[in-house]
């Protein structure tokens, strides 16, 4: 635990990255990157609050909080203290046949925060795995009820549920990130979200036709994140609950992005007053410090596995399940949600994002500007050169990473007013420069 993030004394900002960077980079394979043509990644020396400090001393204001995980900002002392304490007691112990206080306390606290009777927590180590587990729970739920043919899910255009092959299969097969894998995983049924009368009727027809093959419906409530930062309303989620009930399907909410305040309420499902049968959580669960995820099942789902028949048990068990350090970090993160005004901060960020990004609407090439909670999105007609655009943000002293045709901001909830203003100004400036051309 003696790295920079874990010690009180910040190391010098300037350090010579020559050794670790030049020596290690040839052995690293980076995510979603064409390694041959990509712009070289930036060497990071440390993080602090809402800042990323590069090895050459430059400081970037972070606009995306490390894929939306660092909701309290980086290096929060309360989480750090919890980690140091837990590291001294027990960093990890296997969860098969053994349990420990940080995990059980966390499970109890999560259940208390979640609506309805979502009250059984299955821990894992990443969002994709949490989704795989939700999928297995849904399919095995029906198997345990003697309906083994119900093994597909309804998913939605624009969906993204992770990178493992089972989770990939739940993404949009046409326009999603994994179109190239079409044919590899099980095909589920991908339709438009029921946002209006015609799309609701279309979904109803699919359910009418295929209900016997279906285990459930999976959706990211309110915001489809990595699939394009697309928003839908609470009424859509209420329609999904009704349809799931009408056709006796399990409703799964993937709240890996939307959970822990990001959309304005602690969980997206709260805004709609809808209780899903299974919910997946990760990302901000540990306040952006350690990998941890949870798949939480309702009593009805759990009861289908409660049996004298060993074959009815859920067959899953990741090695690092309920890692004690990660659970300690998650408990500390929940303390911060209790002690500090996070949801009020989200409301203030929301207003500032709406104000700061609104002028983008007037710029050429801008298709849409939208804000939901602490998520600000500027959608362009198209982005021709993503790498160049990302580089422009670095030149402006901010870390913003557009994808597809969207530029988005998902800052830490603790971001200062000036830092947030710097982010929205940078977005405005970079889009303005883009419109003016080279
Ligand atoms: C809604 C949603 N589900 C699942 C995942 C996958 O999580 P992970 O990258 O931790 O596997 C993500 C990641 O962005 C996500 O946004």
For this entry, give a set of tags.
438 residues, 36% helix, 7-stranded mixed β-sheet, 4-stranded mixed β-sheet, binds pyridoxal-5'-phosphate, globular
Structure characterization notes:
With 438 residues, the protein is α/β, with parallel strands linked by helices. Helices cover 36% and strands 16% of the residues. The strands form 4 sheets. The chain has a 7-stranded mixed sheet, with helices on both faces. Strands 1-2-3-15 form a 4-stranded mixed sheet. Helix 4 (101-113) crosses helix 11 and helix 12 runs parallel beside helix 14. The longest helix has 20 residues, at 417-436. It starts with 17 loop residues before the first helix and ends with a helix. Residues 1-14 have low confidence and may be disordered. Pyridoxal-5'-phosphate (PLP) is lined by residues 126-128, 131, 160-163, 220, 225-226, 254, 256-257, 282. Pyridoxal-5'-phosphate binds next to helix 5.
